[in-house]
Design brief:
646 residues; mainly alpha
Amino acid sequence: MIAIYKQHKKLVLIFFILTFLLYGNALRNKYALDDDYITVTNFPVKGQNYVPNNELISKGFAGIGKIWKSRYAHDGESSFDYRPITSTSFAIEYGIFGQNPFVSHLINIILYGLTVFVLFCVLLLLFESYENKLLIATLAAFIFLILPSHTEVVNNIKCRDEIFSFLFPLFALWHCLKAYEKPSAKHLILIIVFLILGYYSKRTAVIFLGVISLSFILFRKVNLKKVLVAFGLFAVIFIIAFIIKKQVISETSIRKFYHFENPMFTEHFSFMDKLMAAIKTIGYYIKFSIIPYPFRNYYGTNVIDISSKPDIYLFSAILFLAGSGWYFYKTKNKIFLFGALLFLGGVFPFSNLMTPVAGVVGERLGYNASLGVAVMLCILIAPLFKSSTSFTLNGLLKKPTVYFSPVILICVILIWTRNTNWKDKLTLFEHDITHLEVSAKANSLMANEYLEMLKNQNFKYPPETLIQKGIKYYTTAIKNDSSFYSAYNNVGVIYYSYLRDLPNAKLYFKLALKSRSVYPQAYENLGNCYKQENKIDSAFTCYVNALKQDPKQYTAYVACIKLFYEAKQYKKAIAINKIALSYYPTDYTLVGQEADAYFMLGNIKLALEKYEEAYNISPSPQLANYLALKYLELGDTLNYTLYKNK
């Protein structure tokens, strides 16, 4: 690659310049969708204890060891795939630069530019027997660079896993081609290293088993038997990496799927139904690669119709398959066939045929397949250029490029505009929601953002407006999918916390529990409603149900303890407190509440012991002064002096 760089310095420089021209305005963006899964995105709030949303990444270099034993992302109920390379990159970045979205976006843009350069080098080597190899490699790399469908991968910091799982196997393909020219241990080792790096970035790197095999079948004089042997050896590498992962990782993968993500998770689909869904999914990726509009941050049930009903996606797939077959039959162009097979192989794992895809489709999921699109388009337009060994950069800037300048300009505008949409979660959601009226998940995400603004008192809009927007989008989510349990719960929170409307709040919390019986947060929220109505027994039953379902639900313990304290049932408050302390033994609030209960029971000795324990956990002048006065009342001058001095 160094030799290619030296020979084509100007071209490589242009690739990187274009990358920054296209994506430079993304450097102003903040954190957005799903970035909190993979890096530290929450900032300290004045007057509150700061707990980073991603503990492992917040440790920087010190967290790397644990990263290699953990799933790459977690939420309230799930732990996701194993991607230690991606997570390690974020830990290193955080260790050096701290919490800095500018740096995160800069790294993604640089990696994207590097991908374009490596792709150019690989294609130049792969097509070395073709007279117009430089033209083909340049055009394909340029088309790949300006595809607007890549905006999610570059702008979404979390999507660094997509970039890595494509970039590392590209390096592996390069070394496979070099090893064909001159076999050596060096190339073999690097092939193994880059394949493993890709797999540990995201397991979709396995797709390159097919890419590498196809490259040798079509463009190198290697018999099928040798290709199969090499395929088997590379497959063994991935199997070993998988076994190592199973041995090293300290937690199981937990992922629950719901109807609002994909109807295939909950509805019966016959094989023919799945086949039709797969054809339409392929059609979506074809259509979006050529006409990337509208952009959506999430799809899910109802957005893409995967029934047997004819639509633009079905016709797009049929047209692609028929047109590609006809073109290859007429031209026998192996590079075009290579591109078509790359595209089909890239989208097949996400076609919903073998297994349903969360979200049904996704812009980022077409990233690998887009290489095939770039190669096919390159072959279709290459005849317009002077295809000879004397092809130069200047030749790329003459008439043919001028002809395509309107298309290039449209791509540039789409990319620039989409970059600005990714400014932050709110900007992204508010822009895309107009194209996501029927997506339950997208409407819920929109409402979640308004609810967070209410909780954090971040009033871009007046509180009354945020309340109405939150209710609007939660109820739209419920309308789109009546099983959407969290939307019921969250709209109930708005009615309870901000409108003081207990009847509606109780209604929605009960609907949440009807939709999902194991839902500790909804039980706790319903308990809060009963507590407000002074229905102590009903409230207690709800809190107990919440704690049975989640013994570590801290807020349920606190609410239950306060319930009994306010009802002057201090012994019950102490009993619940002791259970809570078994899970949170160093919690200042819990220890203080137990001390208060002992004090109300008249057990001053135990109360003071607990107050002292609370002081040792979190020393404060106020508590020290309180202890000093109490000891003075008891005539204990020694302890009075001790705490008075503190």
